Amino acid sequence: MESIRPYEADVRRYDASETLYARCGHSGVLLPRLSLGFWHNFGGDDPFERSRAITRYAFDHGITHFDLANNYGPPYGSAEETLGRLMDEDFRPYRDELFIATKAGYDMWPGPYGNWGSRKYLMASLDQSLRRMRLDYVDLFYSHRYDPATPLEETLQALVDIVRSGKTLYIGISRWPLEALKRADEYLRERDVPLLIYQGRLNLLDREPMDEGILDYCHEHGIGFIAFSPLAQGLLTDRYLNGIPTDSRMAKNHFLKEERLTPELMQFLLQLKADAEACGQSMAEYALRWILCQRGVTSVLVGASSTEQLAKNLRCLL
Ligand SMILES: NC(=O)c1ccc[n+]([C@@H]2O[C@H](COP(=O)([O-])OP(=O)(O)OC[C@H]3O[C@@H](n4cnc5c(N)ncnc54)[C@H](OP(=O)(O)O)[C@@H]3O)[C@@H](O)[C@H]2O)c1
Questions:
Q1: CB 307 within 8 A of CB 54
Q2: What's the chain's average pLDDT?
Q3: I want to staple 114 with a disulfide (CB 3.0 to 4.6 A). Which of 27, 103, 109, 198 is the partner?
Q4: Best of 33, 35, 39 to mutate for ligand 1, by most ligand atoms within 8 A of CB?
Q5: Residue 244 maps to a domain
Q6: pLDDT beyond 70 at 192
Q7: Is 63 part of any domain?
Q8: Is the pLDDT of residue 270 over 80?
């Protein structure tokens, strides 16, 4: 029987290092300017070999940062399980070349301790995530959302204590409002566990972190910023210019609704296509470059359902 050859990462994966990485705020960490998200396409319902191919392609091209959360799937937890299997089968020798993030903050398990921002939830969730991912530690652990009902100090102190326990090296917050971000920054600085990064939705259709002053705050205070859904889940590509493909996110799940395709949006997309073509770029490339040009942005956090999409998106770094 033919033996399965173990994965060997491309020896040229760091050849483009000078353009590929950016410093994350005032930290010592360099992140790829394009990072890979595991929200969709890595769950238990997705073909494992496709998830493997995308992950390998990413790492072979110097994408060292993978972004997960406890409830990515479906089912919940299964994207982390996919990563765990990939660690065992492909990436264990490369653990120190990878920057792996996970999060807790949204609905994860039933009852009062499986959601939001309590110490109880965050601590238990990270332990579960580590088991699923077959890791001793993550590089980055996030509070996935601001919890107005839990004292901010409780959430933040849990994050500090998790760093001190060695289960994460750095901490981040995602989708926190500006005032809470400021308080978090101060609290964490005073405890010598500076906030590494803020994760927020930023793309040509949704500029909230810019409008709210979050991006500026991060830039001025040495905090990195990573933009999630930079392609608005695929809207800012050619995916929906001629209808809704059956294999697209819009056709497959409720996170991207058909109602988004209004005549106004289609008008915007056609203009985007024309602007991109005038620059010799694809729509995706143009949309990603726009984000990367904003002051304070460390990385764009893309999703991909194929290696071809990832390859196209990587062109934004050329
Ligand atoms: N912190 C948070 O609350 C939060 C929230 C959302 C996401 N995130 C993170 O951000 C990551 C990225 O989010 P996202 O998946 O929404 O990002 P995105 O990059 O805006 O959308 C990815 C989707 O767009 C389509 N696509 C990508 N490249 C394409 C190309 N070149 N041509 C045509 N279509 C293309 C694919 O959809 P098809 O499936 O249709 O092919 C792909 O799955 C997530 O995986 C997660 O890690 C975080």
A1: yes
A2: 97
A3: 109
A4: 39
A5: yes
A6: yes
A7: yes
A8: yes
**247-275: average pLDDT:** 95
Whether 301 lines ligand 1, by a CB cut-off of 6 Å, is yes
What CATH number has the domain bearing residue 234?
Answer: 3.20.20.100
- Domain residues for 90? 29-317
Q: Residue 234 to residues 55, 277, 283, 294, 313: CA-CA distances in angstroms?
A: 19, 18, 10, 20, 11
| Site to substitute for ligand 1 among 233, 261, 298, most atoms within 8 A of C-beta | 233
Q: Is residue 15 part of a domain?
A: no
Query: How many Å lie between the centroid of ligand 1 and the Cα of residue 189?
Result: 32
Per-residue pLDDT of 33-85, as tens digits, reads: 999 999 999 999 999 999 999 999 999 999 999 999 999 999 999 999 999 99
Its pTM stands at 0.98
Give the count of domains, the chain: 1
Reported as a pLDDT band with limits 50, 70 and 90, residue 180 is very high
Q: What is the band of 104 on the pLDDT scale with cuts at 50, 70, 90?
A: very high
> What is the pLDDT, as a whole number, of residue 4?
66
